Amino acid sequence: MYLKKGDKVRVIAGNDKGTDGKIIKVVGDKVVVEGVHIVTKHIKPKNNGGNGEIVKVEAPIHASNVMLIDKKTNKTTRIAHIKNEKGTKVRVSKKSNEKFD
Q1: What is the CA radius of gyration of the chain?
Q2: CA dist 38 to 18, 24, 84, 93, 97, Å?
Q3: Contact call for residues 98 and 72 (beta carbons, < 8 A)
Q4: What percentage of residues in the chain have a pLDDT greater than 70?
C-alpha cells in the first residue's frame, strides 16, 4: 500500500468528504484518519464495579477514499514509485515531483 502512518491525507468520498487529517493507523487496506469517521462506542462496565461509558472514536475507512496531500502545492496528488541513487523505492508526487519520505 502507498499510504503510511503520519501521512497527511484528504478524504475524497463519503460523509467526511473534503476533510484533511493525519493517518493514525494503517490496518490492511483501511486507514484510521485523525478526526474522520467518528463513531460512538458503548463500553461495558468492568468487573471491579466501574461504570460503563459511551466514547467517540475514529473508525477505519477504506484507503481508496483518501488521497495524499502534496506538501508543495497543498493539493491532492497521486503517487509514483521511483528508485533513488541507492536503488530503493521512493514515493514521489506526480504533480510536483516532491519526495514523500
Answers
A1: 17
A2: 15, 13, 39, 29, 33
A3: yes
A4: 99
